[in-house]
Amino acid sequence: MAGILCPHGHWKEPEDYGRYRADMQKRCASFARMGAAVFAYDMTGYGEMKDYGWVHNHPLALKQQLWNSIRALDFLLTLENIDPERIGITGASGGGTQTFLLTAVDERVKVSVPVVQVSAHFFGGCICESGMPIHKSRHHQTNNVEIAALAAPRPLLLISDGNDWTRNTPEVEFPHIQYIYNLMGVPYNAENVHFPDEGHGYEFSKRKAVYPFLAKHLELDLEAIRDGQGNITEKGIEIEPCEKMKVFSDSNPLPGYAVLTNDDVKWDCHLP
Predict the structure, then answer these.
(1) pLDDT tens, 171-200?
(2) Do the Cβ atoms of 191 and 158 come closer than 8 Å?
(3) What is the 3-state secondary structure (H, E, C) of the chain?
(4) What are the pLDDT digits (tens) for 15-59?
């Protein structure tokens, strides 16, 4: 079966953050209904990682978070019956950053769908996205559009909207990515779905655009999430409370060898 990684973005409320949110649960459950094995995991300093001592505002958060995504993919590929030629990733906002960064550095990702994040002028605003010199140094200068284009020739779908930094995607970012895909002879593998009247998020309207794309390129069963009228539906998906979504508990305790901080130092970070 296909495998799909689902990284999450930045959310402030512990009870309503990325992996626990209803929109994350709905898309993960829908992918599973379509026939994929789906793995949602904590970003550095969020969810259970935060509970056990990891902090997000850490100088090495970008590197650590991307390394976690690589290891998440390692884990996904150890599961029984996973097809290594049918691996996808999708996330919104900071999860969109993880989506295109992992795709750029790991060719095992075969299909990439960064949502409301790829921008030529905005790098993400968080230390986990802009806190290391991956965009500019004395020796190089680039931006997230060029990094996202490293997905080529693999299928790439950009989801953008009219009320954040992706508002110019149809006129600015996507044409450049199309140019790269044209150079590689696969212009049909790059797509953009733009929502000019919507804002930053991974709402049902955006998920409805993602489901057919991943179904097509990962050979999933789109009919499994259609109703009797042929419309895509998420009806019947039960939203679990956050406590039930946690991995570790009294019956499944955190291993004694688990790393409980970002590194050897307890960082007191008050970064923006």
Answers:
(1) 999 999 999 999 999 999 999 999 999 999
(2) yes
(3) CEEEEECCCCCCCHHHCHHHCHHHHHHHHHHHHCCEEEEECCCCCCHHHHHCCCCCCCCCHHHHHHHHHHHHHHHHCCCCCCCCCCEEEEEECHHHHHHHHHHHHCCCCCEEEEECCCCCCCCCCCHHHHCCCCCECCCCECCHHHHHHCCCCCCEEEEEECCCCCCCCCCCHHHHHHHHHHHCCCHHHEEEEEECCCCCCCCHHHHHHHHHHHHHHHCCCHHHHECCCCCECCCCCCCCCHHHHCCCCCCCCCCCCCCCCCCCCCCCCCCC
(4) 788 899 999 999 999 999 999 999 999 999 999 999 888 999 999
Give the pair of three-digit tokens for residue 232.
């895509």
Indicate the pTM of the whole model.
Answer: 0.94
Q: Note the pLDDT tens digit of each residue in 138-172.
A: 999 999 999 999 999 999 999 999 999 999 999 99
